[in-house]
Amino acid sequence: MAGSVTVQTGQLYNPVLTNLARQYRPHGFIADQVCPRVTVQKETGQYVIFGADDYFRQETDLLKADRAESKEVELSISTDTFKADEYSVKVSISRREREQVDNVIQLRQAKLNLALDRLALAREIRVATLLKKTTTGALTSGAAPSTNWNLDTATIESDIVTAKDAVYDLIGVEPNTLVLPFKVAEQVAFQQDIREVMKYTVNGQQTLSQGEGILPGKLWGLNVVVPRGRKATNNEGGSAAFTDVWGDDPRVLYVDPNPAYGTPSVAYTFQTRPVEVRTFITPDPDLEWIIASEVLVEKATAPDSGYEIQDVLS
After folding, report:
1. Class of the 31-52+76-309 domain?
2. Neighbour-count burial of 214, counting CB atoms closer than 10 A to its CB (0-12 exposed, 13-18 middle, 19+ buried)
3. Residue 137's closest CA among 33, 29, 251, 39?
4. What 3-state class would DSSP assign to 207?
5. What is the pLDDT of residues 258-289, one digit of tens each?
6. Which of 112, 168, 193, 252 is most buried (CB neighbours < 10 A)?
7. What single-letter DSSP state applies at residue 116?
């Protein structure tokens, strides 16, 4: 028949496309934004804690008569400790895989990405767990909202002001960061009261097309950070089951982007070795190993500097 094509079974060649592949990778991590890294020389050490109220204490008798002594004030000082640990993951490629796999699959790079992603995801989960007010978390303050945020009757502004005030009351510094997990940020963007507020500061059409930002970069004087990390909770080989790393729990935090002595940032990462990648080969079995590792510990150095608004979605 004119125009027809006959293909004989067994004569098809299936090349791997060089410009198309399907690879889902975790992204949208914020651990370094809310738990900045501080390089230290040793894996264990101490840091200084000054008394919370020493600098704020009200004095009513500082008046000094001529030739009289000045009133002496005292500063209470204590310490806390940290202990860094090594986190490491490895992948392998056999000699036969190296020899037989199609170059365009980029197996070595794909496996390196897997190792780095696992390392980064584990850190993101640790930081998200640390910045909670639970038995596993470290934050001093937190509470559920008066009404869930995905309801029209939600009082989102009031809940955030409550969180801001709680932090301010404890540290005397206004928090500067609002962590809104992705699905929470979506609900905030479409809640009727919030849209009413935003239309006066951001063009209505723009607000609905914020794209990756979802919300303006700053709300209620807080820098808006939207984590997008997802984690698979199923065992290897089981049916895929995903949840958000940061859950549906917004956090109001004071985070100093420039770690400095005396700064009451909510959390720091004490790090002796940043992410490092190394390779080695074993002769039997004949494998090339790729190892990604880092040595660090995440520590809530100022747990009063954070507030968790818990379970805001129905």
Report:
1. alpha beta
2. middle
3. 251
4. helix
5. 777 667 799 999 999 999 999 999 999 999 99
6. 252
7. H
